[in-house]
Write a structure and sequence with these properties.
Length: 312
């Protein structure tokens, strides 16, 4: 197995303010590397020349490409141009500049929404591009598929050590706590906490509550990213998840337990369900000896505590 040493390297976490990026920053604190970050006002990732110049100046050795325009099912379907354009440009700018500035290792973060809507479950890496995408998130998915393909193409044509991981639905500190634009876990933590504070007996879920999703704690994802950067160098991307899924209603009930709210859920049928089921086959990563270690309740408690402490 390839071993890539992070010791003594200058490591840039692109997207360090987001949930995935901030978890990677926390995880990298345990590695003997020099961490580099750039705020949005220091560096606009949508400007190719700026990205290349900044990377050349900073002499970046390694990149964790966690920068992305992200959002839940509604944001994805109502802001298609932003999701497609911004994610395509961020990936192309950083990957191209990584080649021209001689970056030694790049890890691109995709998403489990790259797989076809009707992919066989659990979804194996080989299911990519075997069928039509889920319409509610195809804009984001197409940009993320382009990112995977860029890494593969740069490996083939230029011999760059660029690899990709596909995380499943994430939750944790630093999530986008936005009831309309965020993902389901953040939205439900907000709604259920608000119901508890207001002594409200009901909370409304979007759709039917029946779709099934897999949820990975952000700190587990970060650990997987560092593991993959150090131990993996191949064209095929790697799924990162737990391999277990639950229904949205079960998710809501588990969050209610952590928040300490006893009420009932109603359903808003005017909102989309999205993919009927989305769970990753994680056997490739498992075979390399990595698996997720945080149980759902422990992870959710951390996420909820973070929300309560930081929501202002
Ligand atoms: P997806 O995994 O790409 O579909 O993204 P989301 O995390 O946004 O949604 C997952 C599932 O949770 C979908 O079936 C949603 O309809 C459902 N859901 C239920 N209530 C909510 C909510 O308040 N916000 C969001 N974002 N999704 C919700």
């Amino acid at each position: 197995m390839t071993k890539f040493d992070l010791a003594g390297r200058r490591v840039w976490v692109a997207g360090h303010r987001g949930m995935a990026g901030s978890a990677i920053v926390r995880r990298l604190a345990r590695e003997d590397c020099e961490l580099v970050t750039a705020t949005r006002s220091e560096l606009d990732l949508l400007r190719q020349a700026d990205v290349e110049e900044w990377m050349k100046e900073r002499k970046i050795d390694v990149i964790f490409l966690a920068a992305a325009t992200v959002g839940g099912i509604l944001a994805n379907s109502t802001r298609p141009a932003e999701f497609l354009y911004e994610n395509l440009v961020i990936a192309t700018n950083i990957i191209q500049a990584a080649r021209t500035t001689g970056v030694k290792k790049l890890l691109f973060l995709g998403s489990s929404c790259i797989f076809p809507r009707m992919a066989e479950q659990p979804m194996r890496e080989e299911a990519l591009l075997t069928g039509a995408l889920e319409p509610t998130n195809e804009w984001y998915a197409i940009a993320k598929i382009a990112g995977i393909k860029l890494c593969q193409a740069y490996r083939r044509q230029y011999g760059c050590d660029f690899v990709s991981v596909m995380p499943t639905n994430l939750y944790g500190p630093g999530d986008r706590y936005d009831a309309e634009g965020g993902h389901v876990v953040a939205a439900l933590i907000m709604k259920i906490h608000a119901a508890k504070m207001a002594n409200n007996p009901t909370v409304e879920l979007w759709g039917t509550g029946k779709p099934k999703r897999e949820f990975l704690f952000s700190e587990d994802l970060a650990d997987a990213c560092v593991f993959v950067a150090k131990n993996y160098s191949d064209e095929m991307f790697l799924n990162v998840g737990t391999g277990h899924d639950i229904t949205i209603l079960e998710l809501a009930q588990s969050i209610a337990k952590v928040v300490g709210w006893q009420g009932t859920f109603t359903f808003d049928a005017s909102k989309p369900d999205g993919m009927p089921r989305k769970v990753l086959d994680v056997s490739r990563l498992k075979a390399l000896s990595w698996s997720a270690s945080t149980d759902f309740e422990t992870g959710m408690k951390h996420a909820y505590e973070w929300y309560v402490a930081n929501r202002a």
